[in-house]
Specification:
single chain; mainly alpha; rod-shaped
Length: 192
């Protein structure tokens, strides 16, 4: 039995959900040979993705550019973000929604977003490690670094060595760390 027989099947069979699902159960690559209609069928693709998520790469370009659909698919497996269209990877709202689900998806955002100060500040609130994926321009922008340290002082770990020696940057770090310590002490005193 050739599990890729769908490649040579009639157009009717390539458009038959039962036939295609059976072929996919034998070899996930079979979706590649399904009809464009099935590759563009939201319900069908979600069914297939729940079984084998990486197969999403063979969905239609239309579906990979459908914000709501891709966000739904990402709920099944956040790494499906990798197959989203470049347009979506450049959409602030879409990427921030995905990053809230899995912060590490930030590294796959568009270069434009990785150079967007507001976007990067929002992303690093959750995890300072994400700063390592910001653009080199932002990593060397002193004012931005100070703002980022105020959001998350651990950002200092990822700035250039020159900026780690800068007095204003270091002061911002220590002032922020001190404020966090004071806040923690106040909170723990209030909870006793």
């Amino acid at each position: 039995q050739n599990s890729l027989a769908l490649k040579f099947a009639s157009d009717t069979l390539k458009n038959d959900k039962e036939v295609v699902l059976t072929a996919i159960s034998q070899n996930s690559l079979a979706l590649k040979f399904a009809s464009d209609t099935l590759k563009n069928d939201k319900e069908f693709i979600l069914t297939v993705v729940k079984q084998k998520s990486w197969i999403f790469q063979y969905a239609s370009d239309t579906l990979k550019n459908d914000k709501e659909f891709v966000l739904t698919a990402i709920k099944a497996d956040s790494l499906l973000f990798l197959y989203a269209s470049d347009t979506l990877k450049n959409d602030k709202e879409f990427v921030l929604t995905a990053v809230k689900q899995n912060p590490w998806l930030f590294q796959y955002a568009s270069d434009t977003l990785k150079n967007d100060k507001e976007f990067v500040l929002t992303a690093i609130k959750a995890d300072s490690l994400l700063f390592q994926y910001a653009s080199d321009a932002l990593k060397n922008d002193k004012e931005f670094i100070i703002a980022a340290i105020k959001q998350n002082p651990e950002v200092l770990n990822y700035v250039s060595n020159d900026l780690k020696k800068d007095k204003e940057v270091i002061l911002a770090y220590f002032l922020n760390k001190s404020w966090q310590l004071v806040s923690k002490l106040k909170f723990s005193a209030n909870t006793k």
